[in-house]
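Researcher: Please translate sequence to structure tokens.
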Amino acid sequence: MPTHSLEPPAEPPRRRPFVVDCQTHLFLPEVLDAMRRRTTEPLVFDRDGTTFLKMGDWLRKVPPHYASVADKLAMMDSSGIDHALLSTNDPGPEWFAGDGPRIAATIHDALTALAARHPTRFSWLATLPLQDEAAARAELDRCRSLPGFRGILLYTNLAGAWCDEAPFHWLFAQAEQLGLPLVLHPAKPLTTAAVSGYELTGTLGNMFEDTIALARIIASGLLDRHPDLKLVCPHLGGALPYLCGRMDHQLGVLKRGPQHLAKKPSAYLRGIFMDIVSPLPEALRFALDFTTADKLLFASDHPWVEAPEILGTLRQLGLPADTEAKILGGNAQRLFGL
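Model: Translation complete:
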């Protein structure tokens, strides 16, 4: 007679989720070389074997691995990242005045070449010369035909002008019309002087940029005018999810600020995508409670942050496998058409 095992059937191995890094940066050698040839800031110089990027009193080191594609791929492989949405590092084209359109084209040609060389690993976000609307519109049209283009990176401030100001309204309309994600990213913080003590620019200045720019976009009414805009904010929205109850109260109860909004500020914020660059599990848990897993995107912020820090933070939460898979890559695949 046949015998029957009392052991339950083995579960099939779980398929590893597809992982997309939605915020990862490269200093492009072509752009660094262009800044080496400049006599006005932003400029790059080399001293004692170290490369420096100078923008006023903001002096940053640029180690070789910040510009290394091989190092980027090695990081992705070791961290289990399948695909990355590359963007350049600031300064963006808006800092180059009349040279901005040429710098933007240089950036996009370099990113296109990387995406063509590694089509399964890289896509990219455009950074437009927004100081010149006609040039920016033309460059956006050109980018749409280039391999790997998936969206637009919009700096929180454009050489000192907040990104919600009137000269940039056309971009919000165009991104909505074309269905292109608009991805915010901190620029040289407008609060640099206030946070330069104790080297708090990266700790606080960049987060204040996210917070202020996002609050201004909401208060401006741009999201009422463009309800189908796909807007992404990095770093869990800066501090705004934590503060937006106060914004609701200031506008809705005390009647301070614009009174033309169709919804509470917090309602707009819950509709915005946010990447999860924060090495604090409690912050990510709050973001999940505040919004939903459908609005969160994995990102590493490499080379400034190492991917295992963010992956480890996510995995500490012990989320259901399908929820974790959405955050790691499923949401990004849908949002960016990967």
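Researcher: Any highlights?
Model: Residues 196 and 275 are 25 Å apart (CA to CA).
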